[in-house]
Design a protein that fits this description.
Number of strands: 10
Radius of gyration: 19 Å
Bound molecules: (3R)-3-hydroxy-3-methyl-5-(phosphonooxy)pentanoic acid
Number of helices: 9
Structural class: alpha+beta
Order of helices and strands: EEEHEHHHEEEHHHHEEHE
Distance between the termini: 33 Å
Largest sheet: 6 strands, mixed
Oligomer: single chain
Strand content: 25-35%
Length: about 300
């Protein structure tokens, strides 16, 4: 028996770290997928992935039994760079396992079941994640996510226009997400995190407008990046990537994800995105352009 599950990666547009403290974040699903294939086999469950991480098999075995399965992982996402590779892996694994459950008379898992069960895999990699990564991976599109008082609140963000983003990967972070979250907690950055929450609310409102004022949203993203610098999670490479993206014509730019390395992105108009990507690539950056299309919810 063979079962396949797929799920997209994600980009946090704004609100990372603040979301851990109960403020809102906005994240979008990326058209970059992870596919998990399960094949029945004799003996202990084994994984073929090309990913060298001792947490991988125990994490997958919170969903798949530890005997009887071969798990193959194929992914278009770089691992550990803030593009939600572990969340996509969690949701893809759950979808593959749920395909097995359905084939053997079980029920199809809905979004809530996927979201709750994905926490077990995400915890294996990230300690105590907010859940925003696997919420957007399971739901797709663009979402507003808050976890105030422990319970997640997930609402679709109703885009009316496509968003043109240029993403730069500065390479694997020097610290894990859990370490960076802990560093921010120890720093006691409540005022900065609350200020990020206010920015996120304004970005959400502006992105849901019939015509997005890209210049204004870009300026809000620049302020979000400055606040993330202030709480110590940016790096010289992320800051330089943001400067390059802005100079190349992006309306605004910020790091995305936990920081300490990983990705930054620039918000562009649809007319400028290709030029911005080409100029960033000419500066030697590892770059790709992506368009986030409105979803019919
Ligand atoms: O870099 P990532 O994809 O692990 O994103 C982390 C986002 C944080 O807000 C820093 C942590 C979280 O659990 O939301």
């Amino acid at each position: 028996m063979v079962h396949v599950g797929e799920a997209p990666g994600k980009l946090i547009l704004c609100g990372e770290h603040a979301v851990v403290a109960g403020h809102p974040a906005i994240a979008v699903a990326l058209p970059r997928m992870t596919r998990v294939t399960l094949r029945a086999r004799l003996g202990a469950t084994a994984v073929a992935s090309g990913i060298d991480d001792p947490r991988l098999l125990p994490a997958l075995c919170t969903v798949v039994p530890d005997t009887g399965w071969g798990i193959t992982i194929e992914s278009e996402l770089p691992v550990g760079c803030g593009l939600g590779s572990s969340a996509a892996l969690a949701i893809a694994t759950l979808r593959a396992w749920n395909a097995h459950e359905v084939a053997t008379g079980g029920e199809r898992a809905d979004f809530d079941a996927l979201h709750v069960r994905a926490f077990a895999i995400e915890r294996a990699f990230h300690g105590n994640p907010s859940g925003v990564d696997h919420a957007v991976s399971a739901l797709g599109g663009a979402v507003r996510y808050t976890r105030a008082g422990g319970a997640p609140r997930i609402t679709p963000l109703r885009l009316h226009e496509p968003l043109a983003l240029v993403v730069v990967n500065t390479g694997p972070p020097s610290h894990t997400t859990a370490e960076l979250v802990e560093r921010v907690r120890q720093r006691g950055a409540e005022a900065e995190l609350a200020a990020i929450g206010v920015l996120v609310a304004e970005v959400a409102e502006r992105l849901e407008a019939a015509h997005v004022d890209v210049a204004h949203v870009g300026a809000l993203l620049d302020r979000n990046h400055a606040l993330l610098q202030g709480i110590g999670v940016s790096t010289p490479a992320l800051d330089a990537a943001c400067v390059t993206l802005r100079r190349a014509g992006a309306a605004g730019a910020k790091l995305a994800g936990a920081g300490g390395g990983g990705v930054a992105f620039g918000l562009c108009t649809r007319d400028t995105a290709a030029t911005v990507a080409a100029e960033a690539a000419a500066q030697g950056l590892d770059v790709f352009g992506v368009t986030i299309h409105p979803t019919a919810w």
